[in-house]
Amino acid sequence: VTTAPVGVLVPAAGLGVRLGAGAPKALRELAGEPLLAHAVRGLRAASSVGPVVVAAPAADVEPVRALLAPYDVAVVAGGRERQDSVRAALAALDPAVELVLVHDAARCLTPAGVVEAVVDRLRAGAEAVVPVLPVADTVKQVDGDRVVGTLERASLRAVQTPQGFRRDLLARAHGLPVGHPHDAAAVLPGAAPPAATDDAGLVEALGVAVTTVAGHEEAFKVTRPLDLLLAEAVLEGRRRAR
Ligand code: CTP
Ligand code: MG
Q: 57: Cβ below 6 Å to ligand 1?
């Protein structure tokens, strides 16, 4: 496990509703290229990354295969929820791969250093690893329009991807039978685990410890229209620095 290649699952099947009308988010353009191409190129810049499986919008599997042909990745159809897409990609990953990252296509400018930091901690023996950043805003709990509490900001972290896991643990967290993670028949609706907004949340629900490493501002998730402007600015900054 120490130096074995690490597999990466890339959920890219979302519609991008918060981005507004247009193509599915992974196919929206950034500096003349689809977001997903930026994301996969970024992963290929991390030397520890081995097999990559992309979960594409079901209607766009063929165009995504063509788009990603230069990067040697597998492309499968994603599902209705992000978790469904992650499970579909995991089921298609080479069964020999023991360490797995899950990385949002929407975090398309994530520096390779973040990927390597997660991998290093996994290879050092952690079962689950997440990159995090301190939170800038004060976060409150509300009930309707009424504030019911204020969380202590110093102890809060915003969580990014890639999130790294031992493969057997990720399979168990997603309700896939461990030992037969490549068995496509295992991806059954009834096997769905409880809802969580990230993969580490599913692992936490199993009572397994999750370790944090430093995230990066440029690993932000393209979510709203303003994020596209920010992404263009980051790319322009990188061009000038070259
Ligand atoms: N994702 C996926 N399958 C889904 C939903 C989301 O693979 N059914 C992926 C997205 O493509 C994205 C990542 O999960 O790379 C994070 O999701 P998010 O940022 O919420 O993207 P969307 O779901 O596309 O955006 P929105 O929620 O605004 O529709
Ligand atoms: Mg979403």
A: no
